[in-house]
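Quick note —
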Amino acid sequence: MSEHIWQWSAVRTAQAIRTGTITSREATESALDRIHSVNPHINALAEVSAEEALSAADAADRRRASGEVTGPLHGVPVTIKINSDQAGHATTNGVTALKDAVVNRDGPHVSNWRKAGAIFVGRTNTPAFSIRWFTDNDLHGRTLNPWDPNRTPGGSSGGAAAAVATGMGALAHGNDIGGSIRYPAASCGVVGLRPTVGRVPSWYGPHDQDQLLGVQTMLVQGPLARTVADTRLGLAAMAVWSPEDPFCMPVPLTGEPLPRPARVAVVRDVGIKSPDPAVNAAITKASRALEAAGYVVEEVELPLLAEAWRLWWQLVQGIEFPELAPAIEELGDEAIRRSADNQFAVARRMSNDFGLQAYIRGYARRGTLIREMQLFLQQYPLLITPVSADRTFEVDADVQDVDRMQEVINAQWPMMSLAALGFPALSVPVANPDGLPISVQVIGRKFREDTLFDAGEIIEAHSGVHTPIAHGVTPGVGGARLKNGTRSSPTPQPFGSGGGA
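Predicted structure written out below.
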């Protein structure tokens, strides 16, 4: 073959296995070979499960040979984030004290991918406690951005984005409460979906542990992939109703077609942080692609997004996340303690009202903003914004000082505002003018992820697919933590040369 299987899309890989063109073992071996070549340099996978994956692939091939009905991801190599339960593995969440916290059952979203036939080749890195846009921890080491090691791969799903961008799995699982799917996807030049709250069954932490209200109403699980079509496939396999999530709803994946011509609103700035010129250019490019496809695109003002951004910081960061402060102080590494201190300091700058009445008023106001957003989306069923108003941040920008953290937080207003409201959003790569990718965020009505995929495929068709990456990368830090607890050793050579694959 002129190209390796690891370079194939998830859709193509699944079809080839289904039709017998290749076997699941061949697809898995190709992914594992790629992991062996690449992961020591960027450290996207905190754990590699070669024996387990090959055993599962052989079982998948036996099931297909026997004529058993196969699922949509039958035999497709994927990765799972280390803050989600996967049977037989430790849910470390990047915390050294949890390195032996092995669980005996899958989380509901992980279970859905397993039932769909996916092969779990490894577990992706995250910052400690998964509350940074930078992926580094004392247990598993730092994940590098494969485009530029001096830039963050994003967080908290930075390992997931870097893994899928370099071909270490056709799909990656991530989760998002304030940008943790969308920002890593944008930083690494891949597609990332934040589904509607309730679309994918989720439970964060031990099954008998109560969850904070913000986690219950804002946290989602979702897929990252190299193409929009792959992301659509990943969602379909993940979004199967489960009684384990009290908010999960069995809503059809496809709704009525949007009235034509469909109207698209574009919001570039809400008065918090103006977009970088390159980000502005990406928005313009995406808008023109949709106009060429028959959409009516209009620049609008939407100040409720600024209010939703501030509300997220007051409710989640100012009132609820301090509940984690004792655990961070006791169990966290130096970077997460410094980042958390800076985040809390910014939250206090934005509001000093963190009492019970502020909490009650805040969630009451949240309902009103959701209503206003739903009314807006009746007029404009799609909305384009930046993913981040800034270019991809330098490594550890959040731990420099409070002022730099404030700049980082201001640039991220498009992601937190959307998370506070619970609507779906798709991060789609548009350009990489200077070797760093830039994406836009496509927002839609609740449970209408299908409309985001339709628009995203048009933007993608005009922008091209820039991954999997095959060019050279500066060696990573720390290596991958293998299933037996040992660490691979980074090597001094980059893993490839030339352009993208």
